[in-house]
Amino acid sequence: MVPDDTTSPDAEVGSSNDFLAPGDDAPADLSDVLVYGLVGGIAGSVLSFVPLATVLGGAVAGYLCGGRSSDALKTGAVAGVVMTLPFAALVFFLLFFLGVAGAPAEFGVIALLVVGLAAAYTLGSGIVGGYLGYYLRGRL
Predict the structure, then answer these.
(1) Gap between the Cα atoms of 69 and 98, Å rounded
(2) Could you tell me if 85 and 71 are in contact, meaning their C-beta atoms sit under 8 angstroms apart?
(3) Pick from 68, 74, 54: which is nearest to 129 by CA?
(4) Which residues does the annotated region (Disordered) include (predicted)?
(5) Helix axes 105-139, 30-46, angle to 10 degrees
(6) Among 58, 78, 93, 102, which residue's beta carbon has the most beta carbons within 10 A?
(7) Given pLDDT bands bounded at 50, 70 and 90, which one contains residue 7?
């Protein structure tokens, strides 16, 4: 008789691991976290016209990464950082040209505050999306 690798003798019926694919409970490698975070960040940036695209980008990253919930949170954070980069680059590019044109310093301080708040929103929603993707991977 060949042993079945998909179930373990000590697994309880109805446990939360019933929905996970084999190997999903193993920690993800750092390279997986970075690659899937990059993929999720690009997906979120491409879907930026959709409401809550930052959550969708994090969810894509968390779903693809697998591993443990902490890995999904890290992957969502990487996706959030990747989604923040185009916005921050655009704002700093515009600030450079406005600074050359002689804009007041207060404008730069307000712009930095806006970039900081937008980065916190994007990073936070990417982390939430990463956990949501992890949860959906276990259920679908």
Answers:
(1) 43
(2) no
(3) 54
(4) 1-22
(5) 110
(6) 58
(7) low
Q: How many whole angstroms separate alpha carbon 44 and alpha carbon 60? A: 8
Q: How confident is the model at residue 139 (pLDDT cuts 50, 70, 90)?
A: confident
Three-state DSSP string of the chain = CCCCCCCCCCCCCCCHHHHCCCCCCCCCCHHHHHHHHHHHHHHHHHCCCCCCHHHHHHHHHHHHHCCCHHHHHHHHHHHHHHHHHHHHHHHHHHHHHHHHHCCCHHHHHHHHHHHHHHHHHHHHHHHHHHHHHHHHHHHC
The token duo for 138 is 């276990």
First to last CA, the chain: 30
Report pLDDT for 35.
93
CA distance 48 to 116: 18
Q: In angstroms, rounded to a whole number, what is the distance separating the alpha carbons of residues 22 and 4?
A: 12
